[in-house]
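Supplementary Note 3. Input sequence used for the single-chain structure prediction.
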Amino acid sequence: MNTPHIFSTRSYAYLRNAIAPLGKFEVGEVEFETFPDGEHYQRIVSPVADADVVLVGGTISEGDTLELYDLATGLVQCGARKLTLLIPYFGYSTMERAVMSGDVVTAKARARLLSSIPQAVAGNRVLLVDLHAEGLPYYFEGAIHPVHVYAKSVIVTAARRLRGNDFVLACTDAGRAKWVESLANDLGVTASFVFKRRTDGQHTEVTAVSAQVKDRHVIIYDDMIRTGGSLMGAARAYHDSGARSVAAITTHGVFPADALARLKASGLFTQIICTDTHPRAVALKSDFLQVESVAELLAGHL
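The predicted structure, written as discrete structure tokens, is reproduced below.
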């Protein structure tokens, strides 16, 4: 059998390069060109016939999703024996169900798209990291095998490094309470969450905090940080309840536009820690934003 290869979309070259030596993969080469009319050209340079192939790429934008789909299709057509899609960040994961009549369940549509990639001889599978909803793997169809990879070990290590055992682990709302309670039990610390009341279609307000946080360090965990609005609301509630300090840990640091700058300027957080599942977080890494790699975790599933 040929040496296993690892490829990536352009946005995830950093994670491909971090995983490759851990799994003794050969880094695959792809030529990419954009034509004046915006169309894209890809050519798989590395021979992959009869090889096991890993393709790293997230659905972080429409363009990245199609790049991932096209490259995966090409790898199978070039004779890959087995294809593993490694998707560190699955976009549209919060659009996992219809709330109003006519809502498009985009998470399901993306899963169906990736399920339509031609099957390699030894099968296709997809690795997904810390999904927003547990049911998302069931949206994949046909012979593709979805695997939900939990980054709990990375989160636990980061929390320990930040505060040892001296903190309360919190979440932004009761919806994440069970996951945070499980994480708190693993850490051996107290769990807390906030109760929120919706004031209108777009806004909520915090009405209570579930645990005593006065004079305690608080670490808020959420699976993803996008604009950070809910995170700042929770942080204010913990400060108002007497917390000595508040930090935040997330798996997926999305931080669109000036989101991270606003979080820092709020003065509510001593530090934010995330993983490198999203390239935006890697680009914004700083003293305020610490980025932990999931490369070793993912290599263990390949």
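The mean pLDDT is 91. The chain has two domains: 5-149, 152-293.
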